[in-house]
UniProtKB/TrEMBL annotation:
Taxonomy, superkingdom: Eukaryota
A Pfam family recorded for this sequence: MULE
Protein name: MULE transposase domain-containing protein
Organism taxonomic ancestry: Eukaryota, Viridiplantae, Streptophyta, Embryophyta, Tracheophyta
Organism listed in the record: Mikania micrantha
Domain MULE transposase: 305-399
Length: 426
């Protein structure tokens, strides 16, 4: 009966006489018979409570068609709404406890509802424009539900009344869905341009298959997007949509496996050279070192310079990620190897450097090693490559100077200082 819905007005609850006759003077006896007394002294004109007036969507929802599936019905509604500048999304569904089939479902405007604030001080945007009271999500569609006098109230609309846009009825005899419209008002004007809307940026199933196939061929997301737009000029997706879809595909493929199992499967299938270090007591993998086969060839050809840097817990696994880079004779950089380590300690870095050293098979070792001022990395380099010259990375030096000193300069003086610094380095 939806008696738990919060009304926009205040009611006083008196003693309920179960033997009393319904009040014949009240227009809707269903609430009066339960002892509800409406207090109009605390309620102003209901029309004045709305901050925004409902806007007629002017969408013709009349149809005698019986839809044979839920998907067909939802698709028809979404297409009709989209043609008129509105986006309809599915809110939730309810299934039968006995058969498990869907007996009702709710659709609503994508801009319906209220933005739920969170208890932190930060600025955030939301497309939710529903206001407190009966105007929340005016285009909300309730499916498989009929409005009654109990829900409308005695004197004015209750919260949620204007949310009902349409009712979907399931015909159990013919196994079809029918549409009955109750209210199709919106509290906002239709959208004139939908190019940037997430709904119209969705991929079709054919485009999803294309993204999956091109991802397996190691094509960049921007090139994948170009291929999709070339195949379908009407597509308005962006690169971020390709990234998100790729992540969904990856998550689907690695379902049931641990991150370590997924990584090891990839390294094995791609024929990477990789080593792992396990704790002797627990047999748990703590460090993993891996190198692409072509990188191994480049490392043997150009072992003269080694650059090493560790990004501290900036990945989704919250582990230090180590990058080892080399330099060719034409001053071009290339990746030698990568590693995940469990701790930011000297022994972990020593193990990584020893793995890189073992790939050279006792050939010429690096003569120059460049790192940032990480004491653990610097100490590990001295132990593994004692004869190599050690230098600090100039880029890290510039970043530290900017971080600690830029605030003391004006913009003009800082520019002069940077120019002078470049001249001195040269």
């Amino acid at each position: 009966m939806h008696l738990n819905e919060e009304p926009p007005v205040e009611y006083s609850y008196g003693t309920i006489d179960l033997n009393a006759e319904p009040n014949a003077d009240v227009g809707f006896d269903s609430q009066a018979s339960y002892g509800f007394v409406y207090d109009d002294s605390k309620q102003s004109n209901p029309e004045e409570a709305y901050e925004e007036k409902p806007a007629d969507s002017n969408i013709n929802w009349e149809t005698k068609e019986e839809f044979m599936s839920e998907e067909a019905l939802v698709g028809w509604v979404k297409s009709r709404a989209l043609d008129n500048g509105y986006i309809v999304i599915k809110r939730r569904t309810k299934k039968s406890k006995t058969t498990g089939s869907v007996i009702k479902f709710w659709l609503m405007c994508d801009r319906g509802g209220e933005h739920n604030s969170i208890a932190i001080l930060r600025r955030s945007g939301s497309k939710k424009i529903g206001v407190v009271g009966p105007t929340v999500g005016l285009s909300h569609m309730k499916l498989g539900y009929m409005a009654t006098s109990m829900d409308i109230g005695l004197n004015g609309p209750k919260r949620g009344e204007l949310d009902r846009m349409a009712v979907w009825l399931y015909n159990e005899v013919h196994e079809s869905w029918k549409l009955q419209v109750i209210n199709d008002n919106h509290n906002h004007e239709p959208t004139q341009k939908l190019e940037g809307h997430p709904y119209v940026r969705r991929f079709t199933q054919e485009e999803k298959d294309m993204v999956e196939n091109l991802t397996e061929r190691h094509m960049d997301p921007r090139n994948i997007l170009s291929s999709i737009k070339k195949h379908n000029p009407a597509n308005v997706s962006i690169s971020r949509d390709v990234y998100n879809l790729q992540q969904k595909i990856k998550n689907k493929k690695k379902f049931g496996d641990t991150p370590m199992q997924v990584l090891e499967n990839v390294l094995h299938s791609q024929r990477y050279i990789y080593y792992t270090y396990e704790d002797p007591e627990t047999n748990i993998v703590e460090d993993i070192f891996f190198c692409q086969p072509k990188s191994n060839c480049w490392w043997r050809a150009f072992p003269h310079v080694l650059m090493m840097d560790a990004t501290y817990k900036t990945n989704q696994y919250k582990l230090p990620f180590i990058q080892i880079v080399g330099v060719t004779s034409t001053h071009q950089t290339f990746s030698i190897a990568h590693a995940f380590v469990s701790k930011e300690r000297e022994k972990n870095y020593v193990w990584v450097l020893e793995m890189a050293k073992s790939m050279l098979n006792k050939c010429m070792e690096p003569r120059v090693i460049i790192t940032d001022r990480d004491l653990a990395i610097m100490s590990a380099c001295r132990k593994v490559y004692p004869e190599a010259a050690k230098y600090l990375c100039r880029w890290h030096i510039d970043e530290n100077i900017a971080k600690h000193c830029k605030a003391s300069f004006s913009d003009a003086d800082w520019k002069k200082f940077k120019d002078l610094s470049k001249t001195t380095k040269k």
